[in-house]
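User: I'm curious whether this sequence folds into something compact or stays loose and floppy. Could you predict its structure so I can see for myself?
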Amino acid sequence: MVIQSNMTSKAITELWEETIEVFQKYNVPITEKVLQVLVTENTLQVLLTELNYVIGSSAATCIEGG
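Assistant: Here's the prediction. I'll summarize afterward.
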């Protein structure tokens, strides 16, 4: 699974505890709000890249549609 902008920081940290440090680094609160609402577009792309790196996921590791 790839972490996406329509996911909440709370759901992400519940699935991947190691992402908490990334959210702290970017001062993103752990909440029920989706990432695209919590951060600017520029920060969002960097954040998603780093979160997916931390969990070892990328578009190349996932099958489209699931």
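Summary: The helical segments are 9-15, 20-25, 35-38, 41-55. The mean pLDDT is 90.
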